[in-house]
Amino acid sequence: MTTVAIVGCTHAGTFAATSILNNHPDWTVHVFERNDSLSFLSCGIALWVGNHVSDPNRMFYSSPEALTEAGATMHMQHDVLDVDVQGKTLHAKDMKTGEVTEYTFDKLVVTTGSAPVLPPIEGLHEAVEAGSVLLCKNWDNALTIKEKVKDAKTAVVIGAGYIGAELAEQLDSIEVKTTLIDALPHVLENNFDLAVSEAVEKAYTDNGVTLALGQKVTAFRPAEDGKGITVVTEKGEYTADLAIMGAGFRPRTDLFRDQLQTIDNGAIVIDKYMRASAPDGTVLSDVLAAGDSATVHYNPTDVADYIPLATNAVRQGLLIGENIVEPTHEYLGTQATSAVQLFDLTMCATGLTHASAVKRGFDAGTVTITQDYRPDFMLTTTPVTATLVWDKSNGRILGAQFLSKHDVSLAANVVSVAIQGKFTIADLAGADLLFQPNFSQPINFIGAVAIAATQQ
Asked: Which key words tag this protein in UniProt (predicted)?
């Protein structure tokens, strides 16, 4: 009888447990999770804050009971204290009783996920402990944010990536006067080039959100009235009823330090079959990892990277069960395809921005066009701004971005598949994309931006 220990159970852990039991229903699968819930879709927190969620309980797509019924042995609210990878043992503490138990395993699955980034800023940890700076990661964080914003008149959000950008927009929608702070000079700078960033920045200011960009936070301190928090930056001070950290995530892999090969930030290096390696690079066939605790193969650059997205975690988790006995099904990699809606703007992206491509050493070309998504003879139509990024040396597509008041989110999926298929700009320019006046121009904006790229 084979025994598996799964450490951590959010997206990757949930799907890993399911896939293992589907492929090996007679195995013993122990699942260890510190929280009392699993499978929480944290991407819905901002939407819940803005009252756009029908029922918060629907933000969970599985449960401990469902995995138990599938055949797993669940250890909820158990903190794994240590793992001996080579000795195949671990110790877990029952957080309700304090009892510590040793468990043995034949195979180990590391799906410990990620933790919010808490930079070494003066006063930050004290403010988090005091509850004046909130985190945005799990169900408990969501409950706290939802409760505290009920009485808040003002808020400061730190971090203008997806998390912070959505929180700032949703707080504004419920009439909480909001300031959005980031050390980078533009909103969503790591996700979009200027054609998109500048448009969304205008939307923020038009709606009354204060942008404090290009400002590194240097300290947190209690407000003078003792009822709020003051966020100090290199350029000013911002006082509000509460602050929310949205500065990104780091892999939660401290248990495996010096036992598994990692990249600089601690993410576990895995091969295309989800297998981890010893620090010397030796593949460990009985140790697999997935999700926010692990690397992904980033197709635009063809190298391992850290991209904590639920889509990556789910697809990697599903592969665990297929590869846990022997390498069978390869991971196809990721383009980090994503989308966000802010105010009345839909933005989506896949692959590299032009700025990030140049930073990675590519001789990158870029072109941006704006055209209506469907013909002008229709009673209504809406402009779409489309950007394409490619490698000038071979024409291969590296990334794309789209912005519109029309829902253009699926355009990123089209170019994502093109990047995964190693399309050139000429390939995309000649691709068969539909034309029907209700939906598209004779030359769809995706094809049009590719054609524009070929003419550069």
From this structure: FAD, Flavoprotein, Oxidoreductase, Redox-active center
Q: Are residues 88 and 168 in the same domain?
A: no
Q: Is 128 helix (H, G, I), strand (E, B) or coil?
A: helix
Q: Is there a contact between 274 and 331 (Cβ–Cβ < 8 Å)? A: yes
- Say if residues 154 and 241 touch (Cβ distance below 8 Å): yes
Q: What is the dihedral of CA 439, 441, 443, 445, to 10 degrees?
A: -70
Q: Which two tokens stand for residue 455?
A: 């003419």
Catalytic residue among 11, 186, 297, 406: 11
Q: How many Å apart are CA 196 and CA 189, to the nearest integer?
A: 9
Pair 393, 353 in one domain: yes
Q: Which of 175, 165, 243 lies closest to 204, judged by CA? A: 165
Q: Identify the residue whose tokens are 């404090």.
A: 212
- Residues spanned by the domain of 352: 338-454
The residue assigned the tokens 């669940």 is 74
Task: Report CA-CA distances (Å) from 18 to 23, 68, 260, 308.
Answer: 9, 10, 25, 21
Number of separate domains in the chain: 3
Of 9, 24, 30, 43, the catalytic one is 43
- Tell me the pairing of strands 114-116 and 229-233: unpaired
pLDDT at 226 over 90: no
51 and 138 housed in the same domain: no
Can you tell me which residue has the tokens 């990123």? Answer: 412
Residue 11 annotated among the catalytic residues of the structure: yes
Please check whether residue 159 is in contact with residue 246, taking contact to mean a CB–CB distance below 8 angstroms: yes
Mean pLDDT of 168-179: 98
Domain C-terminal end among 247, 272, 300 = 247
CB proximity list for 201: less than 8 A, separation 6 or greater: 186, 187, 211, 213
Structure tokens at 413: 């999926």
Whole-number pLDDT of residue 378: 97
pTM exceeds 0.90 for this model: yes
Q: What angle do CA 367, 161, 298 make, to 5 degrees?
A: 65
Q: Which amino acid is at 398?
A: L
Q: How many residues does the chain have?
A: 456
43 is catalytic: yes
Q: State the burial class of residue 390 (Cβ atoms within 10 Å of its Cβ: 0-12, 13-18, 19+).
A: buried
Domain boundary pick from 229, 247, 265: 247
Q: What pLDDT shows up at residue 445?
A: 98
Rounded CA gap, 145 and 49, in Å?
Answer: 7
